[in-house]
Every structure is written in structure tokens, then in C-alpha cells.
């Protein structure tokens, strides 16, 4: 007899498999918290050519790493160039339809954001980023908040994060710059 | 941070430590909630083998989306189950997306010892698949709320956090789901109708009448 409410009892996951999954997850954490220059080069384009700089008196080359944002359904706009910024100082922009908590962005019917810097510039103009202290965006004469210089870096989960700053900001944060098409 | 220390920490503390790069904190979270997620995935798929792979994917996804986590009080389980709902719903795509990582794991073969348990697990799968034949007639949001509140035993508040909706919406969805089950029972739609043994008209009715539990069981 089948009882829809009489579900089978809970059972534990196999010990061997559980251990292997735990190991794999811990390795993921280790990998993604390493700075980009200590990670696998897979998916990262290192540009020398026009971006290589020769330092005076030497031949040291400054490499600039780029990585495309694989997940274009949302962009994180940071108020400060700080990955540990308080969540209220980070705005996620997504153009989505009927997106619920826990949804996978890739399945939500979202519209890709191809230019993360423009998307966050608009968020700054709209005053979505917090305004306090001298790092703040203060409303301008036209009622719009000023937009600082912005740069897009790619987080290890493949989402673009836009910070106030310049290309060196990404390097300082240990992130590759976002490669836009 | 060693394992003894992490075992005493709340989910919130572990999550914050993991986000700062502490692998064992994330490992402890996995140990703490893997069985709940595993059983949730089983109930949604009717396959222990699939549940093993999907549980792995849920935690990989959770880490990938760590900046979106929402704790219910200090528990991360409701959010993990919400991620699980979506991973299960998009099962093929989820498995495809993480196939490279899954390939590093030993095969998801359920070969428990003693053999008696192997038989029980086969019985579980048969039972669950019959249940899912009724369950799958419900709307997706009805399925989610029933799986969270009735099967996983989340409170309304935890389910609300998991689903990203107000508590009132959880109540109304649950009520709608039960009503839907009642109608299905009246129509004679039941597990046995679609390939199982003899029809059992009270099955859908029984779930419709069952109150939500308030504990976070596995």
C-alpha cells in the first residue's frame, strides 16, 4: 500500500562518499580563497602585449589578468574596494523574471548584463550605493549621485564585481579584471 | 580551526569562517547538514543514487553562491534545502554544470552492508516513486512548500526564509497544496493509478490532512 505521507525513513549517506565529498568541498574552499595568481590558469587570459609595462631601470613586467564573467545574470556593485564590505554596501543588480530565493541564476530567465560597469554606474547615479563619509556618493545638482571611477573584476564564482577604483584595484584584491566582449 | 572547535560553532559562525577561507568550517557544515539535504534530494527524486550526486551539487552550488546565503536565525539548512529544490528541479543542467567536479568522486553506488539494508533501500525507492507520481501533479511552488514543511519538517518561518516569501505566503501555499491534494484524491488520482500496485485513494487525502511539523528533521 502506498501512503503519500508515509515516506521512507531517513538514511545516512554512504561513509566513503561522504568523506570524498567533504574533501572535494574543502578543496573548493581552499582553491577559491587563493589569490588568482596561485590558482589554475584555466579560464584566465594573461595579457602582456599592450598592457605590459616596463618598469624604469628594469625589465619587470606587470601582468594584467582578465577573466570573463561567466554568470551575466547579475552584477555586484561595491561601495568600496573591499571584498569584505558590509552587505548593505553591496548592491546586486539583476534583470530577472520571477526569481525566487535559492533559484539558480542560470535558470531564472534573466537578461544578461554585458556591461557591468555601466550597470553599476546607473546604480550609483540612482543612489543605490550608500552615502556616508567622504567615500560617499552625494546627490548632485540634478538629483543624481555622482559616479566614481569604476572597474569590473571577476569573482571566482564567475560573477562580475564592480568597485570604485582603477584597473590596479582588481590586482590589489587578488581578482582578474572582467573581460568584456 | 580544528574539528573539535568547529563542532561547537553555530552555522552562522561556520559560514562566516568558511567565507573567509577556512575549509574545515565548510566541511563541518557539510557534515552537519549533508544527511538532511541527502534525504530531501531522495524524497524529490525517488533515487538514493541520484540523491548522492545531487547532495554534492547542492553544497558545490552553495559555495559558489555564498554571497547570497540567507540564514534563518542561525541555521543554514532552510537555505540549503531551497538550493536543493532548484538543483533537483534543474537536475540535468545541475549535474552537467558540475560534471567535472563530480567525476572526482567515487561512483554514487549505493551498496550498503548488510544486504538487508540494500533491500530496504530498493523498497524505499519504489515507495517514493509512487508517492512522487501524485506529488508531481501539484504546482512547483506547492511541491516546494510541502517538501519543506511536511517532509523536511521546517517551520513556517524557516520555509519562508528558504523560499524567499513571507510566512503568510507559506501558509497559503500549503493550504492550497492540501486543497489540491484533496481534489486529486476526490478524482481518484493516486500513486497506484500510474503503474504502482492497487490504487489507494486515501494517500493524497492523508498528506492533505497532515499538519506541518516544527522540527528540522532529516
Topology:
The complex is a heterodimer of chains A (181) and B (218).
Chain A: H1 15-33, E1 45-47, E2 64-68, E3 71-78, E4 90-94, H2 116-125, E5 150-154, E6 159-164, H3 167-173, E7 177-179
Parallel strand pairs in A: 2-7, 3-6
Antiparallel strand pairs in A: 1-2, 3-4, 5-6
Chain B: H1 3-7, H2 11-19, H3 23-45, H4 48-64, H5 77-89, H6 91-97, H7 99-102, H8 115-135, H9 140-151, H10 156-163, H11 167-186, H12 202-209
Helix pairs in contact in B: 2-3, 3-4, 3-5, 3-8, 4-5, 5-6, 5-10, 9-11, 10-11, 11-12
Mean of all residue-level pLDDT scores of chain B: 79
Tell me the overall shape of chain A. elongated
Order of helices and strands of chain A: HEEEEHEEHE
Distance between the termini of chain A: 59 Å
Structural class computed from helices and strand pairing of chain A: alpha/beta
Q: What is the H-and-E element order of chain B?
A: HHHHHHHHHHHH
The stretches of 5 or more residues of chain B where confidence is low (pLDDT under 50) are 191-205, 211-218
Low-confidence stretches of chain A: 36-63, 105-109, 132-141
How large is the share of residues in beta strands of chain A? 15-25%
Span from first to last CA of chain B? 27 Å
Amino acid at each position: 500500500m502506498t501512503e503519500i505521507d508515509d515516506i521512507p525513513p531517513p538514511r545516512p549517506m554512504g561513509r566513503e562518499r561522504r568523506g570524498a565529498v567533504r574533501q572535494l568541498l574543502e578543496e573548493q574552499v581552499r582553491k577559491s580563497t587563493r589569490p588568482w595568481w596561485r590558482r589554475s590558469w584555466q579560464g584566465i587570459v594573461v595579457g602582456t602585449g599592450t598592457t605590459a609595462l616596463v618598469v624604469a631601470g628594469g625589465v619587470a613586467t606587470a601582468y594584467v589578468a582578465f577573466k570573463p564573467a561567466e554568470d551575466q545574470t547579475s552584477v555586484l556593485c561595491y561601495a568600496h574596494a573591499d571584498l569584505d564590505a558590509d552587505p548593505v554596501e553591496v548592491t546586486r543588480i539583476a534583470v530577472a523574471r520571477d526569481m525566487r530565493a535559492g533559484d539558480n541564476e542560470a535558470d531564472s530567465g534573466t537578461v544578461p548584463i554585458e556591461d557591468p560597469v555601466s550597470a553599476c554606474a546607473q546604480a550609483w547615479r540612482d543612489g543605490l550605493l550608500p552615502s556616508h563619509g567622504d567615500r560617499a556618493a552625494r546627490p548632485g545638482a540634478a538629483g543624481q549621485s555622482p559616479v566614481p571611477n569604476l572597474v569590473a573584476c571577476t569573482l571566482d564564482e564567475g560573477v562580475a564585481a564592480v568597485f570604485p577604483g582603477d584597473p590596479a584595484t582588481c590586482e590589489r584584491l587578488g581578482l582578474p579584471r572582467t573581460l568584456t566582449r | 580551526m580544528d574539528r573539535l572547535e568547529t563542532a561547537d560553532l553555530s552555522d552562522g559562525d561556520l559560514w562566516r569562517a568558511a567565507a573567509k577561507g577556512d575549509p574545515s568550517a565548510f566541511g563541518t557544515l557539510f557534515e552537519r547538514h549533508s544527511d538532511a539535504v541527502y534525504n530531501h534530494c531522495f524524497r524529490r527524486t525517488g533515487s538514493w543514487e541520484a540523491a548522492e550526486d545531487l547532495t554534492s551539487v547542492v553544497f558545490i552550488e552553495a559555495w559558489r553562491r555564498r554571497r547570497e546565503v540567507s540564514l534563518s536565525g542561525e541555521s543554514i539548512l532552510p537555505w540549503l534545502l531551497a538550493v536543493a529544490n532548484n538543483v533537483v528541479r534543474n537536475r540535468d543542467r545541475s549535474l552537467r554544470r558540475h560534471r567535472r567536479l563530480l567525476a572526482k568522486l567515487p561512483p554514487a553506488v549505493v551498496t550498503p552492508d548488510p544486504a538487508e539494508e540494500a533491500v530496504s533501500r530498493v523498497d524505499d525507492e519504489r515507495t517514493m516513486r509512487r508517492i512522487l507520481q501524485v506529488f508531481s501533479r501539484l504546482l512547483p511552488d506547492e511541491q516546494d512548500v510541502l517538501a519543506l514543511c511536511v517532509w523536511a519538517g521546517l517551520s513556517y518561518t524557516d520555509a519562508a526564509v528558504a523560499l524567499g516569501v513571507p510566512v503568510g505566503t507559506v501558509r497559503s501555499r500549503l493550504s492550497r497544496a492540501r486543497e489540491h491534494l484533496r481534489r486529486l484524491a476526490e478524482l481518484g488520482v493516486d500513486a497506484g493509478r500510474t503503474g504502482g500496485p492497487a490504487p489507494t485513494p486515501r494517500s493524497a487525502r492523508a498528506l492533505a490532512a497532515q499538519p506541518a511539523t516544527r522540527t528540522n528533521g532529516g
